[in-house]
């Protein structure tokens, strides 16, 4: 080996060129920065588009204001047609958010914001754009926070409080998690009542470890996925992903009428996002089967959440000729497995009894869950040893 070409050897025996660590870390930083920039760009254009949609809805409502219920009919029709054309993201609630967004940030506010941002730029054309028709590119400059942050801000009824949270989020670079926590803890009211407001603002700007947003988090934001009409099949952990995959195959192999519908299916209730791990349709029962996996011990909150899922699915995912959905909670706590059906919401005890007869036995599911977890954990302990050979 000649001088200047020193290399090291990995556990697999492959030679690594000298200086590789620096090249690798530099590329990682480059890709992270690029993905963050891409997420910011998508969020800005998405927010600008939603503001413009809100403006058009409001102006259409004003033109038809003499007709009772015109606004509701307009949004419902738009929701149906846009969903059919563009997929997710255009439900009635989200269109209502766009309408409220425009009302909270009217053209006068946006023009003032843009004028301030472009004040130091030598761009007469941009100045004219601010005073005239606003393009999406112009609007994107006005919205610095992601759409999910503006959705959270819309829940703040008091205008002064909303402006305070927006200003602090911009000043402190708050993530949506941090913004949500500050609003939930009434940070505005506590700061207003504090004798040392400066100390409160400094303390409030300090993020917690769980507030950190990685490029992956930004890309996987549910609103971004909806806007780009991308599938959302992200799992919380490698173990959860492996368990879900094995259980999906297991249920299909049972041959009892299960038809796979989707994984990691998201749903939004008010401004909160939820995710169900597996969604099946049972041909014999003619109903959706919602499956949620918990890696910890089963709690009353998990049961209540499943009933929430079933109620949502009954209203939004179930066709008129189908039976009410049923929920299945699988608890994969280490050393203990539990399978529990949520049947209390069914219209009659007869239907619940029929469901129990047709659906796989809970003990069978628990046994499969235990076996799968043991198998996965044994593979996890064996794999590092094989790499050292």
UniProtKB/TrEMBL annotation:
Q: Establish whether keyword Hydrolase is in the entry.
A: yes
The signal peptide annotation in the UniProt record is none
The entry's keywords: Endonuclease, Hydrolase, Nuclease
- Mention any Pfam family matching this sequence: DUF1016_N
Q: What molecular functions are annotated in GO for this chain? A: endonuclease activity; nucleic acid binding
Ranges for domain YhcG PDDEXK nuclease: 217-369
Looking at the record's lineage, which domain of life comes first? Bacteria
State the Gene3D superfamilies in the record: 3.40.1350.10
The protein's name in its UniProt record: Putative nuclease of restriction endonuclease-like (RecB) superfamily
| Chain ranges of the YhcG N-terminal domain | 27-190
């Amino acid at each position: 080996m000649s001088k200047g070409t020193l290399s090291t050897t990995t556990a697999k025996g492959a030679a690594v060129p000298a200086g590789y660590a620096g090249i690798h870390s530099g590329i990682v930083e480059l890709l992270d920065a690029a993905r963050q920039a891409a997420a910011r760009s998508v969020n800005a254009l998405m927010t600008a588009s939603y503001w413009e949609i809100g403006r058009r809805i409001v102006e259409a409502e004003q033109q038809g204001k003499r007709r009772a219920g015109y606004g509701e009919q307009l949004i419902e029709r738009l929701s149906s047609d846009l969903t059919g054309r563009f997929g997710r993201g255009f439900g009635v609630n989200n269109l209502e958010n766009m309408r409220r967004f425009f009302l909270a940030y009217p053209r006068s506010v946006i023009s003032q914001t843009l004028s301030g941002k472009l004040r130091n730029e030598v761009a007469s054309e941009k100045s004219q754009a601010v005073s005239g028709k606003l393009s999406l590119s112009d609007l994107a400059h006005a919205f610095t926070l992601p759409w999910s942050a503006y959705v959270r801000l819309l829940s703040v009824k008091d205008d002064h409080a909303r402006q305070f949270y927006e200003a602090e989020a911009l000043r402190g670079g708050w993530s949506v998690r941090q913004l949500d926590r500050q609003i939930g803890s009434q940070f505005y009211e506590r700061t207003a009542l504090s004798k040392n407001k400066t100390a409160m603002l400094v303390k409030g700007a300090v993020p917690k470890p769980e507030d950190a947003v990685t490029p992956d988090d930004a890309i996987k934001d549910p609103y971004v996925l909806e806007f780009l009409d991308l599938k959302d099949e992200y799992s919380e952990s490698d173990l959860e992903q492996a368990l879900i995959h094995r259980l999906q195959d297991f249920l299909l192999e049972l041959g009892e009428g299960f038809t796979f519908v989707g994984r990691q299916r998201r749903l939004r209730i008010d401004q909160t996002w939820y995710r169900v791990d597996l969604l099946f349709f049972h041909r014999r029962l003619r109903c959706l089967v919602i499956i949620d996996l918990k890696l910890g011990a089963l709690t009353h909150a998990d049961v209540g959440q499943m009933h929430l899922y079933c109620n949502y699915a009954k209203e939004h995912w179930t066709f008129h000729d189908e039976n009410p959905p049923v929920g299945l909670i699988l608890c994969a706590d280490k050393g203990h497995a539990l399978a529990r059906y949520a049947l209390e919401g069914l219209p009659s005890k007869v239907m619940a009894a029929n469901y129990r007869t047709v659906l796989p036995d809970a003990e069978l599911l628990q046994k499969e869950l235990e076996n799968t977890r043991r198998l996965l954990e044994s593979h996890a302990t064996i794999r590092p040893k094989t790499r050292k050979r």
